[in-house]
Amino acid sequence: MRGGTMSSPRILRFVRPFRSEDFFVVYLHRNAKGFSAINGSPGKIVFLSPGTPLAAEGDDLHVTLSGFSQMEEGVFLKPEDDEEECFLRVVRCSPASCEVEVLRSGFLTLSQKLLPLRPLSVGILTISDKGSRGERIDTAGPALEELVLDIGGIVRQRGIVPDERDMIAGTIKQWIDEDDCHLVLTTGGTGLATRDVTPEALLSFASRVVPGIGEAMRALTWQNAPRAILTRGLAVTRGESLIVSFPGSERGARECFGAVAPVLRHAVEILRNWEKDCGSHTHHHSHA
Of 137, 136, 200, whose CA–CA distance to 164 is shortest? Predict the structure, then answer.
């Protein structure tokens, strides 16, 4: 990201120049064809630096933004104080304007602050004997790929390996040491069966264990699925990267991810020393 400490940009104006419409609030979403839309009608969403002339053609929504210099291609944006509302990503950027796409529908309001989130480079590894032989369709890996988008993750590496300790460890070490994945999520191999060796594989190369993540996954899922306390999912670090292991079922992976998703980005930011840079959550109090 450019510069050091970054404040949250503030929305100064919404306008559709071609229609001569100004708004105090807009609803951004994706239409049935998958394109970004504004208040029910399709159109591009363009963020502008203050003082940039407005185009008079097309049906774009122009959003004047203070702190525009913080925008870069790939950056995620969401309202600073709302975890569930509109979620955007910058797809194209120039010195004075950038186009964003809608990832999650929601409202934006005049004078609202937007929190920029640096993209997380993510690897997702499915660990399954049958899956590696093409005898089982993997649904947990694709589910995790969908879910990481909500924490600003972009999947850079994807793979399926059998339940072999050396293959699991070798793949993850390559993704971290050579490809610089910030976050690696695994699915499968966390049970009590003889072939379930994912925790052992992770511990073979880990720098440190982060016990609270595994504890939270079990604590928050066992009431709906009592057998969840038998799973051995855990989290470890290697250098500046975080590795988290999830169950092999899609339901288990989704539930466990939901249990720990709020802390995953913060953990990576601490490991990478990003806390005072773009995407930090320093406005939330830390107990670490």
Answer: 200
